[in-house]
Structure formats: structure tokens, C-alpha cells
């Protein structure tokens, strides 16, 4: 009986890919995507 913690720490791996950079975090110019701020998802 272990109710200490929940193994529900879902890593932010597959989020919503950014529609601007396609998930790379960089725009077509190689600059940080301003839509997702380089996160790759939005
Ligand atoms: Zn986006
Ligand atoms: Zn983006």
C-alpha cells in the first residue's frame, strides 16, 4: 500500500508541434521561432 506519490510526471516530449517552425524551434531563417520562442511547440 503505497500512496506516497503518483507516477504521473509526463515528460513534455510530444506536445503540439509549432505550426510555424514545425517543432524545430527555429524559423526558416535559422532564428529562434517567435511563435513558440524556440520551444518547438505552441
Ligand atoms: Zn506555432
Ligand atoms: Zn515555432
How does this structure look, described?
With 42 residues, the protein is largely without helices or strands. Helices cover 0% and strands 0% of the residues. The protein has no helix or strand. The mean pLDDT is 81. One zinc ion (ZN) is lined by residues 18, 20-21, 33, 35-36.
Key attributes of the depicted protein:
42 residues, binds zinc ion
In short:
The chain is largely without helices or strands and about 40 residues long.
Give the C-alpha Rg. 16 Å
Major β-sheet, in short? none
SS element count, helices: 0
Strand content: under 5%
* Uncertain parts: none
What is the rounded distance between the termini? 39 Å
Fraction of residues in H or I helices: under 10%
Could you tell me the mean pLDDT? 81
Shape: rod-shaped
Bound molecules: zinc ion
Structural class: little secondary structure
Number of strands: 0
Write the SSE topology:
Blueprint: no helix or strand
Bound molecules: zinc ion (2 copies).
One zinc ion is lined by residues 18-20, 35-36, 42.
Amino acid at each position: 500500500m503505497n500512496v506516497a506519490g503518483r507516477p504521473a510526471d509526463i515528460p513534455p516530449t510530444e506536445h503540439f508541434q509549432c505550426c510555424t517552425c514545425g517543432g524545430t524551434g527555429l524559423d526558416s531563417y535559422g532564428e529562434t521561432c517567435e511563435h513558440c520562442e524556440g520551444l518547438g511547440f505552441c
